[in-house]
Predict the 3D structure of the following.
Amino acid sequence: MFRPLLAVVASFLILVPSSQATAGSAAGSTVFRLRGSFVPDSFAGGSGPGWSVGGGAGWRLNSSMLLTANYDRVDLSDRQDRLIQPLTLQLETRFQPSRRVTPHLMLGAGVYRREEWPQIQEVPVQVPGSLPFGESNPSRSRESLFGFTYGLGVSAPVSKAVSMDVGISYHQTLDRDLQGTRSHSTVLSTLGAGLTYSLP
């Protein structure tokens, strides 16, 4: 379960020291992001299909490192008809920032608020003197779980202050809620694009 996460952490430990050698010019600037994503069905073992919209705000630690706070809304059209709202902190490292197209690697964690509506079950009811009709009694569950995310992508400048981002990210929650109650984990992957605006 955690082997892919450990591989990403190891990559950060190896690559971050080398990326900081180019640090300096953009340190301290603030960024804002808007993004939209598609959630493929069963991609990398995840739930789907669905879609996601979100955004975030961040702070450049140096020219190669970015720390962001993020909110997303993920709507899944699966058997549980789920709504997931990740609230995460993410650390992003960029490589070869002098080139026009810049690859980046992201690692984050936070709270995943989840709501689920099981599929409505139609139960035939017969009332004397009338035709059968259906009744439904869907139940809704709400819980908050700790989860992590990692991903990779590329960025390209659109203007001096705006860049376009394209990438893939993976999300997985633990199988217990924040109160320690046994639950089930959610796994999903997103393919998305967005814009990043940098303040001077």
Q: What stands out?
A: Residues 8-25 have pLDDT under 50 and may be disordered. The chain is about 10% helix and 55% strand. Residues 93 and 131 are 64 Å apart (CA to CA). Residues 31-112+147-200 form a domain with the Porin fold (CATH 2.40.160.20).
